[in-house]
Amino acid sequence: MKPVFEVTKGMREMTSHYCPGCTHGISHRLVMEVLDERGQLGDAIGVSPVGCSITAHQYMNVDMIEASHGRAPATASAIKRVHPNAPVFTYQGDGDLASIGMGELIHAAGRGEKICTFFVNNAIYGMTGGQMAPTTLLGQKATTCVDGRTIEQAGSPMRICELLETIPGAVYVERVSLHNPAGVRTAKKAIHRAFEVQEKGLGYAFVEFLSTCPTNWGMTPVKALDWLKENMIPYYPVKQFKCPEEVK
Amino acid sequence: MAAKRMLIAGFGGQGVLLIGQLIAYTAMFDGKEVTWMPTYGPEMRGGTANCTVCVSDKPIASPVGATCDILVAMNGPSLEKFEGMLKPGGDLFINSSVVSIEPTRTDVNVHYVDTIGIAEHEVGNPKTANTVMLGALLRTCDIVNVDTIDKTLEYKMTGSKAKLIPDNKKAIFAWQEDK
Amino acid sequence: MAEKKLMKGNEAFAQAAINAGCRFYFGYPITPQNEVPEYMSRELKKVGGSFIQAESELASINMAYGAAAAGGRVMISSSSPGIALMQEGFSAAAVTQAPMVAINVMRSGPGIGGIQPAQADYFQVTRGGGNGDYHIIVYAPKSIQEACEMIYKAFEVADEYRNPVMICADGMLGQMMEPVAIPDPIPAMTEEEIFEAKPWALTGHKNKRERNAIKSVFLQQEVLEDFNLNVLAPKYEKAMRELPEAELIDVEGAEVVFVAYGTTSRVVAEAMDLLADEGIKCGLIRLKTLWPFPEYAFDAIGESTKNVIAVELSMGQMIQDVKLAINGKLPVDLINKVGGVLLDPEEIAERTKKIMEVR
Q1: Chain C positions touching chain A (beta carbons under 8 Å)
Q2: What is the pLDDT of residues B33-83, one digit of tens each?
Q3: What CATH number does residue A93 fall under?
Q4: Partners of residue C115 in chain B, C-beta under 8 Å
Q5: What is the ipTM of this complex?
Q6: Residues C294, C166: one domain?
Q7: Contact C115 B41 (CB under 8 A)
Q8: Spatial distance between the Cα atoms of B40 and C171, rounded to a whole number of angstroms
Q9: pTM
């Protein structure tokens, strides 16, 4: 009998610590499936962040290192210098990447490092218990803005893809959404393209996944997916910002 | 030879650090122990520069000190600032092309060197002014074998700079005491 | 060993690292160590190495962390305030056992402080500096020649102990020139050699072994306790047994024993000559390692010694370890300068005589 669906070899066989309905499971699996399909699980080196996905290395079946909070792009830049032919990627949440790690992100992109960054944007600090992130939407409630984020108090949410679009070294920038099957399929294609950009040595590749955090948003998983669609996508448009001709 | 500590001070651009380095190279080629220590940082951006060179037959304990055996004052402010550091009986070289004030010390050997005048009129190359001072120092004070300077100049001046070697060798011997 | 060349300390440090097989260096400008990144940017590419001008010292140490974890021979350098920014990374590198060499060309502080030579980082480099229970191994060279030899050794010790090793120099050693013979070059490891020699490193598992996970998070307290007690503690105990080094000069029969390290120890040596001229017998314990502290050297102090004097360019940091080593047996005094002002031999001699009068 020919199997129609298999567990990817890229994921280690264990139960994850993620909350029910969290989209980390999807984005983990997509990155690993793509590396598996590209035959690169044995070559890849991943860098996990500080945040919910700090222990991504427990699940992903590739060599991995935990970076200090926000520093993943710096750590990955150096790993790539030691192993120039290895597919090197960072997997980072919005607190790690867009707050404490903004400097490392922008400069890795600025140098055009030949690495990929997968950015999980769920508009909140998950692991520490639901504090406001740089990506928290106006009006969205968090434990450090219980009445909802305001411009007066915290300014506007940061749009990371739009920032990176202006940087020549970031050659591939795409935002996708994991709220429905079509979005997941688009996400997988984007991950493929990102690794292809790296393999061809074209520059820095960045994919943002609009993601949910039902626990800290205080919603059911299904409601959270709807909330993402209705609130995040209008502010964070799903689109390909930049793509080199070579991988189109 | 006991350790000799010399301080070379002046404006940036007068080749102050280079004079010190050329002494240091020559001492090394002579088989002596040597240290060269510059001032660094914002102090240099302000336009003044100095370096301390120590030469000895024995390993050099301290590369800096409160006193010196030889002071080269390439400009007036350096003379005013550093002449107090000179040990009694020490040698004080004054760049008389630039320095218009007189030293206050009477217990040291003062040597006036018209670096620019000599470089222009006797060497025929104004860019050798600092080498004129270097030669005055090396030939007056018993620090290194003066002939070793040839090796230093050949080591430091390579490529397009090699053509400057003859003028610089001439400059080493251009100054005469009491002229 | 190659013939002697007159080199600036910072440039010699960089060349010594390259000769020792270092191929990865990530720098950020800060005075007085700028010649290190400048030299590395020119020279590393000639030997197939890689240089990045990092966006900050934070990035610099975290790049070193990545390169070390990937099995590369890596060095970073900075000066006191930059080393302070790196402390998070040293803590991470110590717990993940990432071998690296760091050079601290010390300047004065606190805060931005000044750029002149100082030794006010003794606490910062010997007392962790970052969070948690860890140590970095610290060497303190007195000359450019010794610094180059220590850099060679530092890479070996870093690999053997899988721990960061620091060369604690100061602005004087970084900026001065001295004749130096840099030890002969040794080759760097290829990626294939790293895969074989460093089975813990990030290389990609090549479908030949389990995946490696280099991590510093331990959310179960018992697991972290086990790691600290059974991996880190025995390593640090071994380091304390095997690594302490000091040079002893005329300690036997000395009336006064000085304790100093780095360039300050050279100034002390000249002061000792001045004091000897006046008939005062002096000895010197020169620390070559700051951590582990060479306590054994203090056993050499005999009945003749009446005073122990710590000489350092700080408000009195090393003196605390000296007092621990002396353990109340003798008075321990301090001769110091702070803020980037240097000691000279004459002043040390004068202050020593004053201390002896009081005692």
Answers
A1: 24, 26, 50, 52, 54-56, 58-60, 62-67, 69-72, 74, 88-89, 92, 96, 191, 194, 202-208, 211-217
A2: 999 999 876 655 557 789 999 999 999 988 888 899 999 999 999 999 999
A3: 3.40.50.970
A4: 40-42
A5: 0.94
A6: no
A7: yes
A8: 9
A9: 0.95
